[in-house]
Design a protein that fits this description.
Elements lengths: L1 H9 L3 H27 L13 H24 L3 H31 L11 H31 L10 H27 L1
């Protein structure tokens, strides 16, 4: 009986298992894209570039957002709802700020003469747009999940302090943060 209870406690929650499967798929997609980037950059006509400084600021914003979401999770587990709401809202704000800074970065790249799509575009710039653009889509998905969780935090219904949804969103958010740091360092180190 004790062995059965111990085995049940060691099982991963089905939602967390599905999250990890999804994250594995995302990792494979970005590994494929960055591998293709490395292979393609040896072809003639490939142009080198430097990311504008705004990408450094966006990277700092997403790193700080990892701290704020971890603080939100800690507050949720301690049943400190005001702190939880504050840090969750701050995480949403930083996520939106990250996307805004990314868009500003893309406009700066265009101002530098880097045409990313259409006639006269260079594959190097198109790869940057595809990789960073896909990451932005994943961040947007995280923001939607954060907003849903945040709306529940302001709900007047009786609280169910099940931390699994908050843990799942937190894990996903940390993942997109780490993924961006990888992408940013990837582009910085190759140029």
């Amino acid at each position: 009986m004790v062995d059965m209870m111990s085995a049940q406690q060691n099982r991963i929650h089905p939602y967390k298992f599905n999250l990890w499967l999804g994250l594995a798929g995302i990792i494979m997609m970005f590994a494929g894209l960055t591998s293709a980037y490395i292979v393609k950059r040896s072809q003639p006509g490939w142009e080198s570039f430097t990311l504008p400084m705004v990408f450094v600021f966006s990277t700092l914003m997403i790193i700080v957002s990892s701290v704020t979401i971890q603080m939100a999770l800690k507050a949720f587990r301690a049943h400190r709802m005001e702190r939880y709401r504050l840090f969750m809202a701050l995480t949403v704000f930083l996520g939106v700020l990250f996307i805004v800074l990314q868009v500003v970065g893309f406009f700066r790249l265009q101002e530098m003469g880097m045409k990313m799509v259409g006639m006269g575009s260079n594959p190097a710039y198109s790869f940057v747009l595809a990789i960073a653009g896909l990451h932005i889509v994943h961040v947007l998905g995280g923001i939607v999940a954060l907003l849903i969780i945040l709306a529940k935090a302001f709900s007047t219904q009786k609280r169910n302090y099940d931390s699994v949804p908050v843990e799942i969103v937190t894990t996903y958010w940390h993942f997109v943060d780490i993924l961006w740091v990888y992408i940013f360092l990837f582009f910085q180190l190759l140029h």
